[in-house]
Structures are given as C-alpha cells and as structure tokens.
Write a structure and sequence with these properties.
By secondary structure, the protein is mainly beta. The chain has four helices and 32 strands. Among the domains are: about 60 residues, Light-harvesting Protein (Irregular), CATH 4.10.220.110; about 90 residues, Gp5 N-terminal domain (OB fold (Dihydrolipoamide Acetyltransferase, E2P)), CATH 2.40.50.230. Helix content is about 5%, strand content about 35%. It is rod-shaped and about 170 Å long.
C-alpha cells in the first residue's frame, strides 16, 4: 500500500452499489475523512448519462469505491449510502452528490431503553451491534479494556451510538475501520500494538525537493503542543464498605509536567479502588494523547486512520524519524478533466492531510459523550422470585421492573438490587419496611444516574388500594400490615383524629408482646376493660409488691365457671374492710391452718389451735332449736358463779 509507482503513477476510481441501483454512475471526485474512534465520512461527486428519478431506493445501499493504481494494487473505500442529492444536468451528464458513512453511524438513528446486568462493557457493545444486525467487527484489543463486569448498566432514552460511545470512552476502548471490496469492518483497539504498520518507511521531502512527484512520501510535517492537566483524581462511595477511602489518582508521566493542575471528579462510577485506578489512568491517557499532535501532508494511499508508519529522512530534526500512529486523515482525490477509460475515472492527484501521535503513546477517546440523566423520580413495580411475596437480601434491598422496560419479565432478574430509604437507619436499629412484590414504589437516581437507583417511597394505585375508603376516613392514619404468605390477617396501629371520636387502635394478628426495662405508668381517666376470651391470664411480680387501690367505688371479681384460688407461698394474707365483709358459699366454707385459726370481735374470740378450741367472751350463748349435745372424751368441767340447769 506504499512504495514507488515508477511505471504508472495514475490512479483510477470506480464505484459499485449493492444492490444495483439500476443505472450507471461514475466518480468525479472524492474526499475521505477518517478519525480514530469516530465514524468516517466519504463525500462523492458522481455523474451519469442517465437520469434517476427515485433516489430513495438507493439509500442505505452498500457502496464501494475502488482506487486502482497503475501497478495493479487496489485501495477500497466502503460505506453505507446515507445521503444522495441530484444537482442537475451539467455538460451533458447528470450530477449527484453522495455521502457514505459506516454502519456504526446508522446506530444514531435508533433510540431505546434497556437494562444490562452482569456483563462487561465490551460484551454490552457486542450485544448492541448484533441486536441491530451488524457483525462486521474485529477485536484487536491487547489489554482487555472494557472487561470489567458491570452489575447494572442502563441505556435510557439514548441512541445506540451514544450508548456504545460513552462505554468505550469510559473504559479505554476505541476503534478504526478496515475497508474491503463490499464491506468495512470495525476494529476494536486499546493499545499501540493494536495497529499494523506500513511495510516501508515514508521519507520526508520538503516542497523544494524535485523528486517528490512520484513515490510515496511526506512533504509537510509540523508538531503542535497543547497544555493539559497534571493529574486525574476520582472518588466514589461503596455502601458495603462505607469507611473505605476510594480515591484513585493518575499523574501525568514524562518530562512534561504541568504541576499541581489536578482534575478531580465525583462520583467516579466504580466500586473497587483498582477499578477506579483504571478509569483514572484512561482519563489521564486521554489528556496525554492530546498534548503533542503531529500533522503532515502526503500522497501515500496507505495512510489511513489506525495505521502506524515510520517517518524517515527528516534531516532537519533526526529525532522526528520514528514511528507514529495516524489518528486522523482527510484524503482528497481530484479527477483529470475529461480523462477516463474502461478502468474508471483518472485521478489527477491524491493528497492526504493527516494527524498523528508518537507510536508508543496510548490513544484514548475524550470523555465527551454525555450520559443521560433522569432528572426526577420515577415509579416502578416491585418484583421478585416466583411464588414469593417478599424478595430481599441481607441489606433489605429489593428488585423492581421499570414501566419503560420492554424486556424484563417481572421477576428477580428485572433489575439490580436496589436500596430502600427508611425513615431511620442506625447500626442495628432504626425502621424497616420492605416493599413487597406487586407494590408500586418511587425510585430516585443518585446524581440523576440511571445506573444508581434508590427507592424512596411507596404509592397506592388501582390494584394496591388504600386501607380505608377516602375521603370518608380522611382523619384516619394507620400502619396496617398484611400476613405473609397468603394474607387473611394483619397487624395494625391506627390513629383516629375525628373530633369527639379520637382513638388509638392496636391489633396483633397473633401474639402481642411488650417489654419495659424500667417503670411503666398509665392513667385511665374513665373505664378500663380487659377481656381474656379463651386461655389464661397471668400476672407475675418477681420481686416487689402489687397494690390495687380503688379510691372510690367497688371492686368485683367474678368467676363464671371454674375455681378461684389465692395462694401466698411466703408471707401472710390480710383483708381489711371499712364496713361489713360477707362471704357466701352455696355449699360449704372450709378454713384450714397448720397452727391456729382465730376469730376476734372486740374482747371476744374463738381460737382453734393444735391444743384445742378456746372461746372467750363477755357472754357466750349457745342455742339449739332441736337438740344440743356436749361430749367429752375425758373430763368435763363446768365452773361459774352460778350454774342454772333447766
């Protein structure tokens, strides 16, 4: 593709269409613009002896321009026809202007919203290409740029072209094109060794050199230096390691040192420091690639964007005689006036203006493609594992499906794990409400980044309805849950603020437990009622006293069916009344004591102890309406001042 055309330096241009447009076209002129990491543009001036009325049929055609040299070598330029216009009849021929672009450029005409999970950037780009029907790609990466697996990556209201471009910019991938008859191939690159070199060096010959007419050479050569930053610093936050310092820094290498001019950015969009370091290095390499740019002019057809070549014979500055990487070209071919034959239109001159960097300098794209921002909250559907009502992880995160997602199947694979904002969140304490499958949640995005969603709330809809009809219950506030799985029950803390009907309602669907580590004090200004419908009621005072005081009113204990017992295992029992005390039993009353039982009224008493029964009283009277028996097993003694027996 380079060398000396000593026998015939003439080039001839022909053009072919696939599919056939139905009429013959010739090439009157061509300009080709190529840059690393950018779609090329080929401008064609075409002519035909036939008029073509409907040009729409040729849009999107694959067009190949072949430049054949006198020595038999051919150079191809292939692209998709993206624009064609008719400029009229001139000189007896019909004139047209056309533009050819790569298939990559067509991706700027498609926009989508998609979620990619657990894929690296390189695989995501491949999916985008194949999904749009393009597979002419070649991978010449040397450092596996773009191989970091991304948990979650979103294309949101974004053209496929912008999406793949910003991924390449972020992870240090770029591309160039190789052309062949009938197709062009996108070549991925990430290193100087991703590029092939011309077989022969290109000598430098100034404009004054007489021999510069025939063989491939360079006749203009300039160098441009541009000031740039001295370092790139990134930082991010990883909630799984909140105390970790994630700062990543990359400094400008080499003799050029702009000092402390640092570009600092947050967030860096990475989780691990090693990944942040790679991104900082990519940004720094992008800056360095712009510091020194070489520009030249040549007639070498092999000088294309993405090709390396060696400059030689630069006697004014021998240090310039080294290898370079071509980063951009603008090639023009002007036609010899009225000179064409069966080989095609004859090229009167071929000139290429090009830019280059030193061959050992890594090329990186500038991070210039904007990332879409979601500037406000969205709502989404909570999804999860089939058959479950709650799907969560150790951090209380959930999965959702956004309503713009056309691909998700409303399961645990519809999104990444998303954190849920709570009203309070401490180290093992706070509030915790996990949205359940089927709920509609409000999702915000940190820094507006679609890749970083955060659930901030929950809203009702026509399916997930409100717990109490409104506006009839506008004064009612509640925290009401639903038994899981299956429902059918609930726990609830409800507040009613309607004037005159204020209420706090508490329901436990099954057990209700509370714990007070110090004092519990309650005041009821009117009635209190506790009903145990079935089962037992137990109050235990492990240590201390229990006091029940009724300042005014009555106390009653009713056992409708069953027994009542009072047991004091250590200590005594005492009942004191201000007036009468009455004990009634339908059958019998039994009093039992191991030591004694004593009934006392004033100075009168009846005492039963282990020695017997003693009755003391001012007057003791015994009356039997039928019969009275006094029996003594031993001696009976009757003693009084006077004894009367009737």
């Amino acid at each position: 593709m380079s060398g000396s055309d000593t026998q015939d330096a003439t080039n001839y241009l022909t053009v072919s269409f696939e599919p056939d447009p139905g009429f013959t076209l010739g090439v009157d002129g061509m300009k080709v613009t190529e840059d690393l990491g950018q779609p090329f543009l080929i401008n064609l001036d075409l002519s035909s002896g036939q008029a073509k009325g409907n040009l729409e049929s040729v849009l999107g055609s694959s067009v190949t321009v072949t430049m054949a040299a006198g020595d038999g070598t051919k150079t191809y330029y292939n692209g998709k026809l993206t624009r064609i216009s008719y400029s009229g009849l001139h000189g007896g021929v019909y004139r047209y202007q056309a533009e050819l672009r790569p298939w990559l450029w067509l991706l700027d005409s498609t926009q989508d919203c998609k979620i990619f999970q657990n894929l690296c950037a390189f695989d995501i780009i491949g999916q985008i290409f194949r999904g749009n029907g393009f597979s002419d790609i070649s991978d010449k990466r040397q450092n596996s740029a773009g191989s970091l697996v991304l948990d979650y990556c979103v294309q949101y209201r974004e053209t496929a072209y912008n999406f793949v471009m910003r991924l390449m910019e972020q992870f240090g991938i770029y591309y160039y094109f190789e052309h062949a008859d009938g197709k062009h191939t996108l070549v991925f690159a990430d290193d100087p060794n991703s590029h092939a070199a011309l077989a022969s060096a290109l000598p430098f010959r100034s404009l004054q050199t007489e021999q510069r007419q025939v063989d491939d050479h360079v006749w203009e050569w300039t160098s441009k230096l541009t000031f740039g930053p001295g370092g790139r610093t990134l930082r991010d936050y990883n909630f799984t390691a909140p105390a970790q310092d994630t700062t990543s820094k990359s400094l400008s290498p080499g003799s050029y040192n702009p000092g402390n001019l640092e570009v600092y950015d947050y967030p860096g969009l990475y989780a691990e420091v090693t990944d942040g370091q790679k991104q900082a290095d990519v940004l720094m390499q992008s800056d360095r690639a712009q510091v020194q740019i070489f520009q030249g002019r040549s007639n070498a057809r092999g000088l294309r964007a993405g090709v390396k070549y060696t400059l030689s014979s630069h006697d004014d500055d021998p240090a310039l005689n080294q290898e370079y990487l071509v980063t951009g070209t603008e090639a023009t071919m002007t036609m010899a006036e009225g000179n064409s034959d069966t080989r095609g239109a004859q090229v009167d001159s071929y000139r290429v203006t090009f830019s280059a960097i030193k061959g050992a300098t890594p090329f990186r794209l500038r991070a210039s493609t904007p990332k879409p921002l979601i500037r406000g909250p969205q709502t989404a559907l909570v999804v999860g594992t089939s058959g479950e009502e709650i799907t969560t992880d150790q951090y209380g995160r959930i999965k959702v499906q956004f309503y713009w997602d056309r691909i998700g199947t409303k399961d645990e694979n519809s999104s990444c794990w998303i954190r849920v904002a709570q009203t309070w969140a401490g180290a093992g304490w706070g509030t915790m409400f996990i949205p359940r499958i089927g709920m509609e949640v409000v999702v915000a995005f940190l820094e507006g980044n679609p890749d970083r969603p955060l659930v901030t709330g929950v809203v009702y809809n026509a399916t997930q309805t409100i717990p109490y009809a409104q506006p009839d219950n506008a004064t009612r506030s509640t925290v009401k849950t639903n038994s899981s799985k299956g429902g059918g029950g609930f726990n609830e803390l409800r507040f009613e603020d309607k004037k005159g009907s204020e209420e706090i309602f508490l329901q436990a669907q099954k057990d209700y437990n509370w714990q007070v580590l110090n004092n519990e004090t309650g005041t009821v200004t009117q009635d209190q009622s506790i009903t145990v419908q079935q089962g037992n009621r137990s109050i235990t005072v492990s240590k201390g006293n229990e006091t029940t005081t009724i300042s005014q009113g009555n106390q009653s204990t009713t056992v409708s069916q069953g027994n009542h017992s009072l047991a004091v295992t250590a200590g005594g029992s005492k009942i004191t009344t201000g007036q009468a005390m009455e004990v009634t039993a339908q059958t019998s009353i039994k009093l039992t004591a191991t030591t004694s039982i004593e009934l006392t009224v004033g100075s009168n008493s009846i005492k039963i102890d282990t020695t017997g029964v003693t009755i003391n009283g001012t007057m003791i009277k015994g009356t039997a309406t039928a019969e009275m028996n006094l029996n003594g097993g031993g001696t009976m003694v009757l003693q009084a001042g006077e004894i009367q027996i009737n």
